[in-house]
Amino acid sequence: MTELIKDKPAQPKARLLLAHGAGAGAGSDFMCQLAAQLLQHNVEVWRFNFAYMQRFIDTGKRSLPDKLPLLQQQFSQLITECPDDLPLFAGGKSMGGRVASMLSAHNKVRAVVAFGYPFHAPKKQQWRTEHFVMLNCKLFIAQGERDAFGNREEIAAQSWPQVTVNWLTDGDHDLKPRVKTGLTQSHLIAQAAQFCSRSIDEVLLANQ
What is the dihedral of CA 97, 101, 107, 111, to 10 degrees? Predict the structure, then answer.
């Protein structure tokens, strides 16, 4: 595991423990942009690398992600070790969001936020949503409309009571829109952060 990368606003309303996707770590451009945007909404962001990613950073030898139970164990340990001075939310990009969603039963987690949820592998029909019917808290998903891991048309036919999906115009799995839209990845990451902030507000208000 890595040391936590902490982005702290002056007056934080909540803390988001944020995991990376399968191929790029906590210091990737996407994760840095997302943390910076969340900071503007008074969300304190704690980023970390899973152990397999930290090994790659340390040695330069790339490997496949660890199996889901081990990733869950690593994430859960960090949740347990988080102080209780702020309301805690768990989340992540792609695989990190999937792992976070599997920890919804943790008593310290108020809700989960996923950025580009991997509903299924591209061009595969094996869905990764079997646990959605057993979620213990809200799952908020910021998803690009063109995401090959689950696009707007595919998800429209699904219904999970605890899941809210916010669609980002023309975004792919990395929230990149096509040039013809006039939008940029930065625009969509900013919108995803705004959605995350609104979702946190909703949960905090409901728990007052």
Answer: 70
Helices 29-40 and 185-206: crossing angle in degrees, nearest 10, is 50
- Choose among 205, 132, 122, 207: nearest CA to 164: 132
Question: Block means of pLDDT (10 residues each) for the chain, length 208 residues?
Answer: 86 97 93 97 97 91 91 96 96 97 94 97 91 94 97 91 96 96 97 98 89
Q: How far apart are the first and last CA of the chain?
A: 34
- 156's enclosing H/E stretch is helix 152-156
Does this model's pTM top 0.90? My answer is yes
Query: Any idea which architecture 5-206 has in CATH?
Result: 3-Layer(aba) Sandwich (3.40)
122-156: string of b/e by CB count within 10 Å (b at 16+)?
eeeeeebbeebeebebbbbbbbbbbbebbbeeebe
Cα–Cα dist 85/41, whole Å: 18
